[in-house]
Design brief:
The structure holds 2 protein chains of 2 kinds. Chain A is mainly beta. Chain A contains no helices and 11 strands. In chain A, strands 2, 4, 5, 9, 10 and 11 form a 6-stranded mixed sheet that branches. In chain A, strand 9 and strand 10 form a beta hairpin. Classes of the chains: A mainly beta, B mainly beta.
Chain lengths: ~110, ~110
């Protein structure tokens, strides 16, 4: 079955820097979604990009999708300590949403 | 108001016991899900319900059974608990094929 794979597994940066996380998947998708999970909490949806879209923005977030390479990236600009969390990509194919293993982002003040 | 709420937040129990986790959503969504997150944070879908019908059932042991009394509730029953069932279980809801809204999880520890 398809599965998003994020890299890196962990990322440590300073406040103000940009953070880039990548996601690769294996089969065709309807859309790709990014979620954030703070420690001890549930996942929160960040952004959805459809298979016919190449780039999408939401505030400090920028997502790209390359269906030919079956990959996506999430860029967080001007990071803040509050951005510290795990970030997951999820690929939607039909009614199924499959999550990757996540990237743990640590933003130090 | 909490959109997706699940109880209890923590559940510690012994092997062989039967337990239930409750989930309620007040978002008017038509689909509800149960996910299991293991110690490495890998999320795996267990079940989803759409209009009170089970539509996805991954290779989950039949000791796990979802019960949906109405569109706003999807409870998870687990029989004969095993050590390997220890994990965080998340309930989620959505409109069909739309982004998911998650509860805050139930951390199950089987001793």
């Amino acid at each position: 079955s398809q599965q998003g794979e994020e890299d890196p597994q962990a990322l440590s940066i300073q406040e103000g820097e940009n953070a880039t996380m990548n996601c690769s998947y294996k089969t065709s998708i309807n859309n790709l979604q990014w979620y954030r999970q703070n420690s001890g909490r549930g996942l929160v949806h960040l952004i959805l990009i459809r298979s016919n879209e190449r780039e999408k923005h939401s505030g400090r977030l920028r997502v790209t999708l390359d269906t030919s390479k079956k990959s996506s990236s999430l860029l967080i600009t001007a990071s803040r300590a509050a951005d510290t969390a795990s970030y997951f990509c999820a690929t939607a194919s039909g009614s199924t949403l499959t999550f990757g293993k996540g990237t743990m982002l640590l933003v130090s003040p | 108001d909490t959109a997706v709420s699940q109880t209890p937040k923590y559940l510690v129990t012994q092997m062989g016991n039967d337990k239930s986790i409750k989930c309620e959503q007040n978002l008017g969504h038509d689909t509800m899900y149960w996910y299991k997150q293991d110690s490495k944070k890998f999320l795996k879908i267990m079940f989803s319900y759409n209009n009170k019908e089970l539509i996805i059932n991954e290779t989950v042991p039949n000791r796990f059974s979802p019960k949906s009394p109405d569109k706003a509730h999807l409870n998870l029953h687990i029989n004969s608990l095993e050590l390997g069932d220890s994990a965080v279980y998340f309930c989620a809801s959505s409109h069909w094929e739309s982004p998911l809204h998650f509860g805050n999880g139930t951390r199950l520890t089987v001793t």
